[in-house]
Amino acid sequence: MSSLAKQIDTPVEENKVPDMYKDLQRRKKVILKNRLVLWAIIAALVTWAWTGTNFSIAFIYTGTANMAAFIFTDLLPPDFSAFGRYLQPALQTVYMSLVGMVISVIFSIFFGFMAAKNTSFHPAIAFTSRAIIAFLRAIPALIWGITLVVAFGLGPLAGTLALGLSGIGILGKAFADVLEEIDQGQVDAVKATGASWFQTMGQGVWPQFKTGFVAWSLYKMDLNIREAAVLGLIGAGGIGYTLQGNINLFQYQQASVGILMIFALILIVEYTTAKIRERLL
Amino acid sequence: MRPYIDKKNKMTQQIYLGLFIIFFIFSLLQVGILDERIFQAFSRVENLLKGMVPPAISEPIDVAGAAVESLQVAVMGTLWGVVFSIVLAMFAAKNVSPHISISYAVKAFAAFVRAVPALIWALLFIVAIGLGPTPGILALAVNSIGMLMKVYAEAIEEIDTGIIDALKATGASQFQVVMQGIIPSIMSIFISWSIFRFDINIRYAAVLGVVGAGGIGWELVRASRVMAYDEVLGITLVIFGMILLAELVTRFLKDRADMATLKAME
Amino acid sequence: MSEVVLETKDLSMVFPDGTQALKNVTLTIKKGELVSIIGPSGAGKSTFMRSLNMLNKPTDGQIVFEGENVLKARGKQLRQIRRRIGMVFQHFNLIKRSPTYQNVLHGRLGYMPSLKGGLGRFSEEDTRQALEILRRVGLEDQAFKRADELSGGQQQRVGIARAIAQTPSLLLADEPIASLDPSSSENVMTYLKNVCQEDGLTSIVNLHQVDFAKKFAHRIIGIKAGEVVFDGSPKELTEGITNHLYYSK
Ligand SMILES: Nc1ncnc2c1ncn2[C@@H]1O[C@H](COP(=O)(O)OP(=O)(O)O)[C@@H](O)[C@H]1O
Ligand SMILES: [Mg+2]
Fold first, then answer.
1. pLDDT score at A8
2. Chain segment B55-102, per-residue pLDDT in tens
3. Which of A69, A75, A99, C142 could form a disulfide with A256 if both were Cys (CB 3.0 to 4.6 A apart)?
4. For C1-84+170-249, which CATH superfamily applies?
5. What is this structure's pTM?
């Protein structure tokens, strides 16, 4: 470095503040540029979607107005004579949710343990399990339902299996993530006593896994009741089928009983799982 | 006393467990899982798979168009869901709401909206305003509001009153307190929930077609009705790809933004 | 040097739930004084301090700050009073997700038009000043970090920097070291005292540690159950008085 360059450098070194101001401007520019790019992308996406769907702000108003009119003139008052017709499908929805949950819990324990790096037998198995889970997860339960109705015919069996399958996607990932975060020290301590694989899992892993396991399984139940309520729309069992029947026949006051029952089902299940969660955790 | 209580608790637990198992077995019978069909599951699935492979798409342009429409419906549904949730959250959050009764009313509305599944909303909107993407957009928006308004309002309610005091103490105006204190504090929570909701909306958008609200779901139902198994798989794969692509794009954008912030703050 | 900065007369505060937090507090603070208010928790120290810039509104009495009647001030006038009173908080109260320098710049909001300040369009001069203040509190290397990445002691120094950025004539600090470990406490108190002396600031610091108060202040005021029970120099604060302040009923 020439002595001239040194001379120029020195005062800058001595007085840091002007230097810092430039630095600050530079940093702000980085953030600003990034924000502009992001907003441009978002704006482009929205424009694309807006024109593609021929949307208009007026639709929000007309949509709301029509919906209100529909609710107050057609849906209300509910015709409670339809209650009897909805009772059996409503119960079926609960059965489907429960069995679907148990199926997904059982398989998710297996896949979760195989997918978590620290409990799996081999990295290759872990990777494969993660991939299977990711696939099951990416496809919504209703899509599984459509395929399974093709295979197993109309009725709750297809819906239940759909809930089970998509549940593995959610719970398998959740369980694997919980397992990967457990404290290895405690597990090693049990292992060091010469415990077998099963004993290590039971004594070292399970106590740490339990909380996440219970919370996620109950959460799955909350999700299932929502999914099960609509699986009937594709003929996969449950209350949705009866609801669609009523709507197709323009029996809206009966349909509103179905909607109220779905509403009630969801609230009851959420209340129950919240109580169970409280008790167990 | 203690062992007795423990024993009693254990008993209660076992009774609950027993009841659960009985109810579970009853449910098993009710959903027909012990139906003969489940014992033919292997051959049924085998048949299905044979029919599915190789996957096919008979009208690729229609399917691609439907997939694009689903993505667009998801974007629009999320947009309006976010916009209305932000506005409503201001009325729902106790600490900024004009009146506590307004807060309760708005929260009750959100709870109601949340407890009706998105697809049911779609069904109702179709009856109320007709077929096409608009009922799908509105259904997703309404369903998003149920969830986002709740989490946004909670984020606002959890704002540390200390930071408001601190900015007021500098002589900042109300507008400055909101812009410089409140928004930076809740922005990242808002963004991550909105992205999360976008991911959910894409999944819903993919199935909205089932009730006739446009998009790729309808193509799938159509294929399944004519028992075109290979097409069912083909369209399912398209849906899978569509969801994956959208998730990758949002993640990429978020990572990019985080990276830039990190670079500017190191 | 005997110019009066702040005067309170018969200041009383009753919270809506009926708690009487202040009873007829009458005090005069002169320019350049470093005053420490001590007293057990719940004595009313915070309430007194927060009354001075109207973060809570006293129910009775009078506050005169640099000749202005604080309790009558509204809107713009109140903002103009507040910007001349810097405040440091026990829990720092920084905007955690904003960078450190931005938190210091917040001290300038009271001097800016509402819109400009809200949008964060701080002038070059203010920004340079903020960076310079950060240097003074030894945080020039942390200027661009997110505030919550700093340690507790550092965050409190940012809190001090924000108050200093207001170019205040009075600095209030409400238990500035109550959530810090002993060594950061020393450090923060040293910075606080240096800054006050360098800028000739008048300051009031609530402390519940008597030893820190004695070391820091020229004048100590003891508050108990909302009343001033001691007002004098650190030397006059005998053990008997502290015992009365903290332990007797
Ligand atoms: N917002 C409030 N509402 C009701 N009472 C309060 C409130 N804030 C403080 N108090 C009461 O006022 C009294 C003085 O409190 P404070 O000024 O915080 O004391 P200190 O700062 O000395 O610990 C206490 O009895 C406290 O419980
Ligand atoms: Mg206090």
1. 46
2. 777 777 788 888 899 999 999 999 999 999 999 998 998 887 888 898
3. A75
4. P-loop containing nucleotide triphosphate hydrolases (3.40.50.300)
5. 0.83
CA quadruple A125, A128, A134, A135: dihedral sign: negative
Q: Which of C14, C19, C90 to mutate to test the pocket of ligand 1 (most atoms within 8 A of CB)?
A: C19
Are C101 and C131 in contact by the 8 Å Cβ rule? The answer is yes
Residue C58 CA to ligand 1 center (angstroms) comes to 12
Nearest to C146 among B169, B171, B265 (CB): B265
Whether residue A32 lies within 8 A of chain C, CB to CB, comes out as: no
Quick check: CB of C80 below 6 Å from ligand 1?
A: no
Q: Which two tokens stand for residue B236?
A: 């399912």
Q: What angle do CA B84, B89, B92 make, to 5 degrees?
A: 130
Does any ligand 1 atom lie closer than 6 A to the CB of residue C58?
no
Q: How far is the CA of C44 from the centre of ligand 1 (A)?
A: 6
User: What is the model's pLDDT at position A2?
Assistant: 45
Whether the predicted interface score ipTM is above 0.85: yes
Domain residue ranges in chain A: 13-48, 85-280
The CATH class that applies to domain A85-280 reads mainly alpha
Domain borders along chain C are: 1-84+170-249, 94-167
Q: Alpha helices of chain A — where are they, by DSSP H? A: 3-14, 16-52, 57-69, 83-115, 123-138, 141-152, 156-180, 184-192, 197-199, 206-231, 239-248, 252-280
pLDDT digits (tens, 9 = 90+) for B114-148: 888 888 889 889 888 888 888 999 999 999 999 99
Instruction: Select from C108, C109, C115, C170 the residue whose CB has the most chain B CBs within 10 Å, as the one to mutate to test that interface.
Output: C109
Determine whether the interchain pair A146/B227 forms a contact, defined as Cβ–Cβ distance below 8 Å: no
> Contacts by C126-130 with C-beta closer than 8 Å and gap 24+?
C126/C165, C127/A21, C127/A24, C127/C101, C128/A17, C128/A18, C128/A21, C129/C165, C130/C101, C130/C104, C130/C105, C130/C161, C130/C165
Look over chain A and give the mean of its residue pLDDT values, rounded to a whole number.
84
